[in-house]
């Protein structure tokens, strides 16, 4: 049984902050089929198209029939823990610092045997539920969970290495003026975040929901205009060392593409708010987050972007906005690479039109801000990198994968 | 005028016999800007981005790139800003006569009224009452409306409610009268605009803009330190940036005040 983790004490200023180490990175290209699955929280294995048998680890040919037709597909998660062992003095720096570390051999119901990291409640000879996770080096690893719920399950030490659970962490929600930001604050607080800092730009402008934010325990309103370099830097000077999770809730949606707009003022605003705001936040908060990736229970752990799914494929009705989101998507991959040495995850949430004022005339289905907030929390708890919220986002993803050209024509309506 | 008189002025400024009062807010990203409904184009906020600061980007020097809308911070409105002044000659900041950049000011203290009522509007009788004390407003003078609004915190300064901004300003009659009967060179306020916060509901809407610019006169807003000016006798120096066909610009506004 897992002892619940305790709220971290204040740091001893006489001690050096330990720098993050990374578990081994190298993977074959084929193995990144697992990376994709882990990023999305899916459990996928290779399966032979010819003989139907599952294979593990990633292979170029089927170990049963030598066919090369191995395809990653969603696979049954159930298995049995055949054997376990505890590494007490591993040679790898990352695991040595975290020893003792339990691993085990899991015989999957669907066939292959998998070496997996073990949740502490996994018992030899008992059934386990398998998942693929991204470890601190961003690579996919197999993780075995007990088949059912156990007390304080999410507090398992090895599991917490795989996730960015908000429990006891301090979160910066960069924009609390909008519904997404306010719902995110509530959801993160409910998930056990110690403090949620809420950025408010131009505090002289009143906004809906302000009263509710103020005066709540554990919620601190801070002045932050992400689009302003100095504002981001000033806030980081105050709290940069205390931001364990950053949730970028910048929201700047304007309709229109190219020809029916005059000039570049709105496009500039879109770029200022979304793209340059992202850069300002990254430069202000990124370095300290990367440095604090192994800083105890409340180590820095994740950066969350909320992106329009039209970052993946331009929606001409909101064409310039789509382009600004595409720029942010590209930047998120850069940030992901740069935060990697700190073991800090970058999670992108893709949404379709949100049920907010700027999508007023767009017919449903629209995504409720609360659904986005809940997806943020579950994504952090699950250690995900890519999350698609709502039917529209999921559908765009599937149509893009099936035929990008068809999607381009279909969005042109 | 003899050049020795001008030199006397310079030495009086240097000695402090003529005080120089800075009527300008620091141009910063924090300062409130005019708020329009979001579907309209918006003034770009003030942004200050470092180019280098004695670092790898420039080891011996510090400098910034600055961006802002023409109507941010303490700023000047040229006649071309409003549709009523769009066809006037020399109506932009780059073509306006430089001599219009220096002019005396009459300061009307309405701070008591504005403290009682955020929607205080200046009327002709208010100005006539001022004139009985201080004399008739001479032509080509600035009229500056002192409300002490510049002393407020930013939220109270912008004072936005769900029915718009609530800040003091002139009513239509007094603007028409100041322009036509008194020949003022311009009108200046401490608030975000030359017009009252609710002036969109006046007839005509935004009367300060309407009448001033329609007659080729100027506006100054977001002024501070008006409480340091005498009712008459101060000289305002207000030279906007020479922006090509510019409708206005942030600027440094100073007042020269004789100490005796």
Give the SSE map.
The complex is a heterodimer of chains A (413) and B (260).
Chain A: H1 32-40, E1 44-48, E2 54-55, E3 70-74, E4 78-87, H2 93-98, E5 101-108, E6 113-118, E7 127-134, E8 140-146, H3 157-160, E9 170-173, H4 179-190, E10 195-200, H5 210-213, E11 219-223, H6 229-239, E12 245-248, H7 265-291, E13 302-308, H8 319-339, E14 345-351, H9 369-382, E15 386-389, H10 390-402, H11 404-411
Helix pairs in contact in A: 4-9, 6-7, 7-8, 10-11
Chain B: H1 3-15, E1 18-22, E2 47-55, E3 58-67, E4 75-77, E5 102-109, H2 111-116, E6 121-122, H3 124-134, E7 142-146, H4 154-158, E8 160-161, E9 164-165, E10 169-170, H5 172-180, E11 186-189, H6 207-214, E12 218-221, E13 232-238, E14 248-250, E15 253-258
Parallel strand pairs in B: 5-7, 6-10, 7-11, 11-12
Antiparallel strand pairs in B: 1-15, 2-3, 4-12, 4-14, 5-13, 8-9, 13-15
Helix pairs in contact in B: 5-6
Organism (chain B): Bradyrhizobium manausense
GO molecular function (chain B): arylformamidase activity
Pfam families (chain B): Cyclase (PF04199)
Describe the structure using short key phrases.
heterodimer, A: 413 residues, alpha/beta, Rossmann fold, seven-stranded parallel β-sheet, five-stranded mixed barrel, 11 helices, 15 strands, 31% helix, B: 260 residues, Glucose Oxidase, domain 1, nine-stranded mixed β-sheet, two-stranded antiparallel ribbon, 6 helices, globular, KFase/CYL (chain B), KFase_sf (chain B), Cyclase (chain B)
């Amino acid at each position: 049984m897992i002892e619940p983790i305790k709220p971290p004490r204040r740091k001893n200023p006489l001690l050096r902050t330990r720098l993050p180490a990374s578990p081994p990175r190298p993977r074959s290209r084929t193995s990144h089929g697992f990376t994709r699955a882990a990023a999305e929280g899916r459990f996928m294995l290779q399966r032979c198209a010819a003989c139907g048998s599952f294979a593990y680890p990633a292979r170029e040919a089927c170990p049963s029939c030598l066919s090369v037709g191995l395809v990653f597909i969603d696979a049954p998660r159930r298995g049995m823990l055949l054997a376990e062992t505890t590494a007490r003095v591993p040679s790898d720096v990352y695991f040595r610092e975290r020893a003792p570390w339990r691993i085990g051999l899991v015989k999957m119901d669907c066939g292959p045997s998998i070496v997996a990291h073990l949740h502490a409640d996994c018992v030899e000879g008992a059934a386990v539920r398998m998942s693929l996770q991204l470890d601190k080096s961003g690579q996919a690893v197999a993780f075995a969970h007990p088949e059912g719920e156990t007390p304080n399950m999410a507090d398992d030490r090895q599991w917490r290495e795989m996730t960015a659970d908000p429990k006891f962490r301090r979160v910066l929600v960069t924009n609390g003026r909008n519904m997404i930001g306010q719902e995110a604050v509530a959801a993160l607080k409910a998930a056990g975040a110690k403090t949620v800092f809420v950025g408010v730009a131009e505090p002289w402008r009143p906004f809906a929901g302000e009263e509710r934010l103020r005066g709540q325990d554990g919620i601190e309103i801070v002045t932050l205009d992400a689009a302003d370099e100095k504002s981001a830097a000033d806030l980081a000077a105050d709290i940069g060392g205390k931001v364990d999770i950053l949730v970028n809730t910048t929201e700047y949606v304007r309709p229109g593409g190219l020809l029916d707009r005059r000039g570049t003022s709105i496009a500039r605003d879109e770029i200022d708010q979304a793209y340059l705001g992202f850069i300002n936040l990254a430069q202000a908060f990124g370095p300290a987050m990367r440095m604090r990736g192994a800083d105890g229970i409340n180590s820095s752990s994740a950066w969350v972007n909320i992106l329009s799914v039209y970052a993946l494929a331009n929606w001409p009705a909101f064409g310039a906005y789509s382009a600004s989101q595409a720029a942010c998507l590209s930047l998120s991959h850069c940030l992901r690479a740069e935060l990697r040495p700190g073991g800090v995850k970058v999670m992108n949430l893709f949404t379709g039109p949100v049920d907010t004022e700027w999508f007023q005339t767009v017919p449903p289905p629209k995504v409720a801000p609360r659904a986005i907030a809940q997806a943020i929390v579950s994504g952090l708890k699950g250690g995900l990198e890519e999350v698609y919220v709502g039917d529209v986002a999921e559908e765009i993803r599937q149509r893009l994968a099936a035929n990008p050209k068809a999607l381009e024509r279909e969005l042109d309506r | 005028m003899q050049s020795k008189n001008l030199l006397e002025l310079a030495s009086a400024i240097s000695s402090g016999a003529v005080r120089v009062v800075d009527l300008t807010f620091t141009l910063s990203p924090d300062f409130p800007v005019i708020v329009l409904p979001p579907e309209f184009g918006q003034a770009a906020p003030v942004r200050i981005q470092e180019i280098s600061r004695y670092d790898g980007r420039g080891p011996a020097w510090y400098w910034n790139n600055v961006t802002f809308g023409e109507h941010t911070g303490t700023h000047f409105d040229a006649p071309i800003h409003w549709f009523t002044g769009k066809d006037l000659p020399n109506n932009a900041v780059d073509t306006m006569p430089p001599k219009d950049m220096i002019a005396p000011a009459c300061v009307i203290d309405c701070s008591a009224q504005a403290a009682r009522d955020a929607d205080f509007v200046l009327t002709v009788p208010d100005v006539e009452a001022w004139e009985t004390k201080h004399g008739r407003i001479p032509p080509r003078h600035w009229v500056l409306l002192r409300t002490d609004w510049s002393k407020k915190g930013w939220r109270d300064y912008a004072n936005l409610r769900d029915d718009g901004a609530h800040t003091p300003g002139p009513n239509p009659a007094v603007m028409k009268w100041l322009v036509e009967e008194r020949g003022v060179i311009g009108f200046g306020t401490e608030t975000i605009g030359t017009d009252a916060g609710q002036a969109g509901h006046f007839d005509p809407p935004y009367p300060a803009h309407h009448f001033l610019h329609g007659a080729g006169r100027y506006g100054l807003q977001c002024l501070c330190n008006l409480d340091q000016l005498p009712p008459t006798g101060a000289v305002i120096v207000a030279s906007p940036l020479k922006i090509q066909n510019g409708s206005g610009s942030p600027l440094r506004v100073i007042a020269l005040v004789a100490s005796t």
